[in-house]
Amino acid sequence: MNSDDQLILEFQQGAREAFVELFERYREPIYGFFRRRLEHPARAEELAQECFLALLQNVQRYEPRASFRSYLYGIATHLVAAERRKAGREVVENEKLDDRAAGRNAAGNHDAGIWLRKALGHLEPSEREILMLREYEQLSYGEIAAVLRMPVNTVRSRLFRARAALKNQLLPVK
Amino acid sequence: MERHAQHAFEAEEVMAYLDGELEARRAAELAVHLVSCSACQEVAQGFRALSERMLSFEVERPSPAMNARVLAALDSSTSANQARTSRALDHGAWNGRPVFARPRNWAIACVVALVVTLALAIPHTRRAETLPASGRNLRNLVAVEPGLAKSQASDLEAQKVTPEDDVQSALAGAPPPPGEELKAPENVGPMIVQTASLNILATNYDQASAAIDKLAAAHGGYVEKLDAKAQTGNARELTASLRIPTKQLDGFLADVRKLGRVEEETRSNEEVSDQYVDLQARLKSARATEQRLIELLGTRTGKLQDVLEAERELARVRGEIESMQGQSTILLHRVNYATVQVDLSEEYRQVLGSGPVSTGSKLRNALVEGFRNLQDGAVGLLVFLFAVGPSLLFWLAILLVPGWFAWRRFRARAQA
């Protein structure tokens, strides 16, 4: 099985199926990325599409500096940032994170989800982002560092702080 | 020893170990340590539990519609076999490079900065043009040199004005000449307040300045305010604000134009009919109120309190009536008498010192002249830079930035 980095280089050479493979691999993770960060599922889907379209349109400019995953999530992070700027939603981010739990989710396990989202909403934004990239996108410290453009050690220390803070937030409900 | 071993690993290292991010040798040590250290086991368990808990933030799967659009784009993209640039990409960095690591972003920032600078600079240069007096003041600083002032004293006497002295004859509020009654132009169409302004450059300043008063009087008007300036080394200036009967305005202006070369002339009309009508209506209603109050006081016998109240009200209404009558009079006066602003300035010629001039004075004059020239030159250069600089920079940016890109591309190709 080819690695992501090989696939994107193959696609750069014109192999259509390489992109299809990448799309299959990242369709759900990328959608999940936007879904966890935005209020509306439809908007999350649009941005996920936009993310892949951006990948598609700029493949010729892709340079294998860091891993493909950090490249892809870099695009996604940027799209989310642009979306929040546009909507001026950053301010109400905390409320939105817990409001989002209010039943629109397809999966069960709602109560735990609500508490978790509320707790996540109380984290400092950059720490929350690192924690989410680690836990949900399963990025390595190095990949997170590349996506957020910060040193790996900073990622590690902030991740630790984020986890400690989240634990504290969750304690009362245990 | 046991106690020390427990603290040999920070909780952060345990976290990194669980994330598979601890350096190999250290990870091996921690793995051994974990078997025996209950405290570290507890820490590790805490992290695992937290990660598990975080999984409760589940999301639904994307709809299949998403595939269609992306794959359609893929097909069109591969058939075109060319990467298109997306507008969204211009906003940031996609290859893990910071925004300003891209030269194009720099160029865009430069152009934006230029445009902003221009937008800020242009109104200022415009404003500077409308204030030529400030340039003259600069010159005055040089002109107060005492020796020079003395040498030109005789010249100043001829001007009948003391140097550095503003003669200001404020004749504001002068009553209109007798015989001219203020009449409300009833049924004669709209009421219009006329103003005119003239900038005149007079060849014979003394004659012209003396003529202004006479002309105003001849046309039945009067001088409201007069301000004459005669500063050493400068052209003399006279600013007069005149009130001329509206009917005479055209004739007066025609005469004033003969005083010299008209550099600028503006006229404006402001219609005040509605203002006047409104004022009259309010006046009428106030008078009716006054009348009613007088009747009330004459016929009713009430409590002292009520009588006092009525008288107070009467006084207030009368005050209002007077104020409105005053406004009405002023308005009528403005309509009947046009305001004419005349700015008269002398066509200035450098005056040579009369009589024999000593070598010392000549040298001093030359020095002052030289200094003045230097200053004029510097101001001229600055004016030129301000006038031409922004557009020069702008066009340079417009032409150079694409040229620079083309050159870079050319060089990149040559290297490849």
Task: Give me the strand/helix succession of chain A.
Answer: HHHHHHHHH
Q: Note poorly predicted spans of chain B.
A: 1-6, 82-100, 127-181
Which protein chains make the most extensive interface, counting residues with beta carbons within 8 Å of the other chain's beta carbons?
A: A-B, 63 and 48 residues
Structural class of chain B: alpha+beta
Q: What's the overall geometry of chain A?
A: globular
**Mean of residue pLDDT of chain A?**
82
Question: Care to describe what's here?
Answer:
With 174 residues, chain A is mainly α. Chain A has two domains: 1-88, RNA polymerase sigma factor, region 2, helix turn helix motif (Rna Polymerase Sigma Factor, Chain: A, Orthogonal Bundle); 93-174, Winged helix-like DNA-binding domain superfamily/Winged helix DNA-binding domain (Arc Repressor Mutant, subunit A), CATH 1.10.10.10. Chain A has nine helices and no strands. Chain A has helices at residues 4-12, 16-37, 41-57, 68-87, 93-99, 110-121, 125-135, 141-148, 152-170. In chain A, α2 (16-37) runs antiparallel to α3, α5 runs antiparallel to α6 and α7 (125-135) packs across α9. Chain A starts with a helix and ends with a helix. The model of chain A is unreliable at 98-108 (pLDDT under 50). Chain B has helices spanning 2-6, 11-18, 24-36, 38-54, 65-80, 103-129, 132-143, 146-151, 153-159, 205-218, 249-257, 273-299, 304-336, 359-415; strands at 167-170, 192-202, 222-229, 237-245, 261-271, 337-346. Chain B is of the alpha+beta class and 416 residues long. A six-stranded mixed β-sheet of chain B has the order 1-3-4-6-2-5. Chain B is 60% helix and 13% strand. Chain B starts with a helix and ends with a helix. Chain B is extended and about 115 Å long. Among the domains of chain B are: 2-53, no CATH class; 153-346, no CATH class. The longest helix of chain B has 57 residues, at 359-415. In chain B, α12 (273-299) packs antiparallel against α13. At the A-B interface, α2, α3, α4, α6 and α7 of A face α2, α4 and α5 of B.
